[in-house]
Amino acid sequence: MNQEIIANIIERHKALKRIDQIRALQKGQSPEKKFILLTDNQEKFILRVAKIGRFHKYQKMFNIIRHFYKQGVKCLKPVVFAKTAGDKYCYTVFEYLEGKSSESILPYLSKNEQLEIGMAAGAELRKLHKLKCPKKHKDWFDKRYPKFLADLKAFKKLNFTFYKEDYVLDYLKAHVNLMKGRPYRFLHYDYGVRNIIIHNNQFNGVIDFNGYKWGDPIHDFYKLPWGSKSCSVPFIIGEVVGYCHGRPSDRFWEMYNLYVMMNLYRRLAWAYLKRPSRLAARLKTIEEIVKEHDLRTNKAPSWFKY
Length: 306
Fold this sequence. Notes:
The protein is of the alpha+beta class. The chain folds into 2 domains: about 90 residues, Phosphorylase Kinase, domain 1, CATH 3.30.200.20; about 190 residues, Aminoglycoside 3'-phosphotransferase, Chain: A, domain 2 (Alpha-Beta Complex). It is about 45% helix and about 15% strand.
């Protein structure tokens, strides 16, 4: 990224006048360029710069985060969204959220601390899910089910299988109608330990709204048995409890089990096509997931002890 472009962005905004350090930030998989901006008194900002073709997407994301911040959600504080001179790029500036990814902190905390941070994260996710889709939309079933069928078709072309695949598919066919008439709300879509920030061993907020979508709130839990579980079981127990204000209902587990199983096909196909070196590990994880999830009575998975 041309340093002149960054300098011009900083010059245009009063809030950034005292910036004296710029550090490139390499984390994340999005195509945008990220920078940490520091002032002489150590105030920090996050600058994200993207090509102008992503203008409307980033504008919507900025406005959503601004809405959440005004509603008291612990997230990055929005500062500005604009285009660069010449309209070649668009950019956002947020105040830096103090702390580190919970992925790097949770394993070193006590089980009770992990549980409490999870409960705080779950309560915060519930706030996000209050936001209703502002546009007219299809029924959630009519949106999500065709995507599952496409994932299944793509997976079948790969000509391999996974642990108890027929059992899982029979379960899905018998339960997909549960998606009909479900709520249609904001979904973070990557609400896991990588995007939960901890500061002074306490929950301090959530980051990375780039992949947000709209749909059934319970769909936001389907990644729990993947990265978050391997990092901290007490955390994911706490997230569910904090979200549900206690022990979840049977309907919560019905929907959770459904979404976990639906997404197995896409995650396997992705590994096969994009990261074949991860395929063996992903097949092993799927075997563990199928074994620990109760598809016969549709109750809580075996890791949920509360």
